[in-house]
Every structure is written in structure tokens, then in C-alpha cells.
């Protein structure tokens, strides 16, 4: 029977999936979506004896959907670094969950595989905003500066592709992108030979040129908010812009808001590098919010909550 993978469609989820598929090649069922489509377990068609691997989505959000799979006799292993809450003990459940600020899901997979496909984990760490961690691993692996630059570019572009309100906003469905990656064991070769990489590079260049020209909605000391226009290019750029601003202003809390076609906003939050105020603690004050200490988000912020969010955000991150 095929292996079943439910994975986040961003760089971390894609590279974690890719490492596992390289280590154990077999027919696979892929369940994924845009970055904020994280309630994936309820879409998993598993029964007795099926083996399910979940990658880079919150256990806490999917908690209720796990028990029916275990009751049906499925085996579930879970790699993730987001807030999890209480983790159950079950003979068919194998958790690899670590919410430390210096890990991502691909690094947890890398740990489980003893570094067998580390270059993909390094690309994922770059894509997930763990630049110092990625550079440290690259140094230990004796990668050249050119190789490190290409892995950083790869991580950035894989992450960029995942942002949007629906798959139609993206350049590639993450499942399609995963299958294109599957032909390459070496990420540098993927960068140099893949048509998908070239498409993402051009899309990123175009979208980020427009995103960088936007003026902040709020620019208080230690707290910056940017409002994007209601356009597909802006929905694609939201995560990359947040990560870029975080690198430029590491002591500042960053929020990027994107209007949703049906009303309300998608929110992407980055916490200051010093760790004085965690992103997930702010985002979990809203019904569809979550994440981790360094980066969080709100999937659906109602327009009526915009002023409340702006006030809480400024109080949470502002430096007087």
C-alpha cells in the first residue's frame, strides 16, 4: 500500500517530505495545500495498517482528527516544531515534536535520518528564517559560499511558492512541486536544471519588486505593520516580505496583513530576533491564529478585529 504524507506546502514541509521520500522511495499519496491550509489530518484516507506521516503542521490544530485514525488501526508519525499542547501516548503514534526556536521540521527529519540529506534540510532552514542555523550547518558540511548562496535561494523560493489564499494564487500546487523535486537527490542540481526553479525565481523577482515599494501602515518603535493590496501577487509575497523585513530590522516585530477575497485578512507575524515577545503568543489570542515563537500568523482575521489586532500588536512589540 502507498505511504501517506500530509505536509505543509512551504519550504520546510516540502524539504522534510523530500528527505523522507529519498530515504524510503515507494508509491506515495500526497495531501497538502497552501501554507495556511494546516488542518490536513481530516483529509487523510487511512485505515488499518496504513502508515501516515505528518510534516510541519500543528499537532494541536489537528488533535481531534488523530484519534479516529489511530482507532482505525493506522500508524501515524509526526514531525513538527509548532505549538503542540499535550502529546498523547499511543502505540501507533510516533511523535518527533520539538518547539525549540532553533529547529524546523526538516531539521527534525535530518536528525532522524542522521544527516543523510542535509543539504535539503539546510535549504529548508533558510526558507524558514533560521539563517544562522542554516549557515552553521553549511559550515560543518564544508559547503562552498556559492553552494550556500544557492541553498538559501532555493529555500526562499520554495517558501515563497506556498503563500496564497488558494492554490490558484500559487505558481505551483505544492504536491506538483514535490513531484518535480522528487527527481533530484541533490538540491544544487534542482536549482540548476529545474524549470520550476526558474519560474519561481522570475515570479519572486516581480512580486517582491512591488512589495518592497509599499509604505508601512504603522511604524512605531519596535513594531511595524504593512497592509498589502488585494491582489494575487501580494498574497504570494506576504511571507517573503515578512522574512526580509525581519532580516533588515531584527529588533522589530513585523506584521504583514493581506485582504482576503471573502473579507477579513490573512496576517503574517515575525517576532524580534532577541525573543523579547513571542509571535505565537500574540497570534493565539485570535481564533485562527497560531505558529511558533519566532513566526506566527492568523488565517482569518475579521475586519471587525483589525483595530484590536493593531492595538495588541503594538503593545506586544513596541519599545518605549
Number of helical runs? Answer: 12
Q: What gap, in angstroms, lies between the N and C termini? A: 59 Å
- Note the main sheet: 6 strands, mixed
SS-based class = alpha/beta
Helical percent range? Answer: 40-55%
List SSEs in N-to-C order. EHEEHEEHHHHHHHEEHEEHEEH
Number of strands: 11
* CATH C-level label of the largest domain: Alpha Beta
Q: Which fold does the CATH topology of the largest domain refer to? A: inorganic pyrophosphatase (n-terminal core)
Q: Write the CATH architecture name of the largest domain.
A: Alpha-Beta Complex
Mean pLDDT: 92
From the alpha carbons, calculate the radius of gyration and give it in angstroms. Answer: 19 Å
**Number of structurally distinct domains:** 2
Q: In what order do the strands lie side by side in the largest sheet?
A: 6-7-8-9-11-10
Low-pLDDT windows of residues: none
Strand content: 15-25%
Global geometry? globular
Write the SSE topology.
Layout: E1 3-7, H1 11-23, E2 28-31, E3 51-55, H2 59-71, E4 75-80, E5 93-97, H3 105-112, H4 118-127, H5 131-140, H6 145-161, H7 174-181, H8 187-193, H9 195-211, E6 218-220, E7 223-227, H10 232-248, E8 253-259, E9 265-270, H11 279-283, E10 289-291, E11 295-301, H12 306-317
Parallel strand pairs: 1-2, 1-3, 3-4, 4-5, 7-8
Antiparallel strand pairs: 6-7, 8-9, 9-11, 10-11
Helix pairs in contact: 1-3, 1-4, 3-4, 4-5, 4-6, 6-9, 6-10, 9-10
Amino acid at each position: 500500500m502507498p505511504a501517506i504524507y500530509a505536509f505543509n506546502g512551504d519550504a520546510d514541509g516540502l524539504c522534510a517530505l523530500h528527505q523522507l521520500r529519498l530515504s524510503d522511495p515507494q508509491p506515495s499519496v500526497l495531501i497538502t495545500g497552501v501554507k495556511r491550509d494546516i488542518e490536513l489530518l481530516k483529509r487523510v484516507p487511512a485505515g488499518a495498517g496504513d502508515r501516515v506521516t505528518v510534516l510541519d503542521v500543528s499537532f494541536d490544530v489537528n488533535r481531534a482528527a488523530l484519534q479516529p485514525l489511530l482507532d482505525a488501526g493506522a500508524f501515524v508519525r509526526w514531525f513538527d516544531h509548532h505549538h503542540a499542547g499535550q502529546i498523547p501516548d499511543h502505540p501507533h503514534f510516533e511523535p518527533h515534536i520539538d518547539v525549540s526556536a532553533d529547529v524546523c521540521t526538516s531539521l527534525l527529519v535530518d536528525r532522524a535520518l542522521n544527516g543523510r540529506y542535509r543539504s535539503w534540510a539546510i535549504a529548508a532552514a533558510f526558507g524558514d528564517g533560521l539563517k544562522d542555523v542554516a549557515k552553521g550547518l553549511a559550515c560543518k558540511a564544508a559547503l562552498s559560499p556559492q553552494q550556500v548562496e544557492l541553498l538559501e535561494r532555493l529555500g526562499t523560493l520554495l517558501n515563497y511558492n506556498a503563500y496564497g489564499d488558494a492554490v490558484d494564487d500559487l505558481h505551483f500546487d505544492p504536491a506538483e512541486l514535490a513531484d518535480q523535486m522528487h527527481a533530484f537527490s541533490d538540491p544544487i542540481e534542482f536549482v540548476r536544471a529545474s524549470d520550476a526553479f526558474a519560474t519561481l525565481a522570475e515570479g519572486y523577482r516581480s512580486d517582491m519588486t512591488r512589495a518592497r515599494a509599499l509604505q508601512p501602515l504603522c511604524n512605531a518603535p519596535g513594531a511595524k505593520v504593512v497592509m498589502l493590496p488585494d491582489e494575487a501577487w501580494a498574497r504570494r509575497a506576504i511571507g517573503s516580505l515578512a522574512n526580509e523585513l525581519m532580516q533588515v530590522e531584527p529588533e522589530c516585530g513585523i506584521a504583514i496583513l493581506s485582504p482576503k477575497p471573502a473579507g477579513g485578512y490573512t496576517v503574517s507575524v515575525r517576532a524580534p530576533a532577541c525573543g523579547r515577545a513571542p509571535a505565537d503568543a500574540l497570534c493565539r489570542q485570535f481564533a485562527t491564529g497560531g505558529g511558533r515563537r519566532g513566526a506566527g500568523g492568523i488565517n482569518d482575521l475579521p475586519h471587525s478585529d483589525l483595530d484590536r489586532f493593531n492595538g495588541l500588536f503594538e503593545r506586544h512589540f513596541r519599545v518605549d
